[in-house]
UniProtKB/TrEMBL annotation:
Single annotated GO MF: kinase activity
Boundaries of every Carbohydrate kinase PfkB domain copy: 9-301
Organism encoding this protein: Streptomyces luteolifulvus
Database matches in InterPro entries: Carboh/pur_kinase_PfkB_CS, PfkB_dom, Ribokinase-like
Kinase keyword on record: yes
Superkingdom: Bacteria
Pfam families on file: PfkB
UniProt keyword annotations, A-Z: Kinase, Transferase
Keyword Metal-binding: no
Protein name: Sugar kinase
Length: 304
């Protein structure tokens, strides 16, 4: 499951404008709650690409779809992180927007209000075989599975990758959307994926099991390599129906958990690109996740 250095990573996924509202204590219904509010670049796919580039991925490319309202800003922000963007401009829909409501107490947990906008309007016409030229790994954001046009793009991208022998990874992205899509349908759609990177909640939802290790092990009978992200509990690596490694988290005090899973995925993929084994790559993922939760928003520091 390793790929040596020398090739590019292509990420296909969502590019989103994040509005992050940080408050302390419970929200006050019907009146004002004092908050700190910032507008930041985000999107699971874009975040993964940025963290992969930040973590030493030799070349990271991103295919996404945005509205004309903010394409220039998103291109600049991606380039500043070392990512080569290929953004399709949607003629009708605006760039997707997510309002991230973060409680700054306790574990800095967050709630998302999501308007996917242009991000899930990627379709097979946006795909080209030439996108895989020079690519040794393809990563798909699971959000692509939650609309019909982008599901069709996923099928086209998977077929192209299989034809070229390019390994494919996928992050399920959202337990809430997964419930709507349905477990059986999700597992059918990811047939042919080499690496699955679910969160603990997603792994448990996809298997119906309450124990994360059991869930990761069961998923690894469907996908050759499963790396289950567990936040403060680190990560689990599973293959062939059994957990092969338990990787501890790096202990930190979280400020904002937005994008922590994306940071893990990006660093994990960057490590694979440079020849690391999955267990070592998962350790790099935990290091990146620890850095991410100490920053506001879902992106790493901009490249120098």
């Amino acid at each position: 499951m390793t790929t040596g250095p020398g090739g590019a990573l292509l990420v296909v996924g969502d590019v989103i404008t994040d509005v992050v509202a940080r408050h302390r204590g419970p929200l006050a219904p019907g009146t004002d709650t004092a908050s700190s509010i910032r507008t930041l670049p985000g999107g699971a796919g874009a975040n993964v690409a940025c963290w992969a580039a930040h973590w030493g991925g030799p070349e990271v490319r991103l295919l996404g779809r945005v509205g004309a309202d903010s394409v220039a800003w998103h291109e600049r922000e991606l380039a500043a992180c070392g990512v080569r963007p290929r953004l399709v401009v949607d003629p009708e829909a605006p760039t997707g927007t997510v309002i991230c409501v973060v409680d700054t107490e306790a574990a800095a947990e967050r709630t998302f209000l999501t308007d996917s906008g242009a991000s899930l309007r990627l379709d097979p016409d946006d795909w080209s075989e030439s996108l895989l030229d020079g690519v040794v790994r393809l990563h798909l954001s699971g959000y692509l599975l939650f609309s019909e046009p982008s599901r069709a793009l996923v099928a086209a991208a998977l077929a192209s990758a299989r034809a070229r022998g390019v390994p494919v990874s996928l992050d399920p992205a959202s337990s809430g959307f997964l419930k709507t899509l349905g477990v059986d349908r999700f597992l059918a759609l990811v047939e042919g994926v080499d690496v699955l990177l679910p969160s603990r909640d997603e792994a448990c939802l996809l298997t119906g099991l309450s124990d994360a290790a059991d869930a990761a092990a069961k998923l690894s009978r469907h996908v050759p390599l499963v790396v289950a992200k567990q936040g403060a509990d680190g990560a689990l690596v599973a293959r062939s129906g059994a957990v092969s490694a338990r990787v501890p988290a790096v202990p930190v005090t979280p400020q904002d958990t937005t994008g922590a899973g994306d940071a893990f995925t990006g660093a994990f993929l960057a490590a694979l690109l440079t020849g690391a084994a999955p267990e070592e790559a998962a350790r790099e993922g935990c290091r990146a996740g620890a850095l991410a939760v100490q920053r506001l928003g879902g992106r790493p520091p901009a490249a120098d």
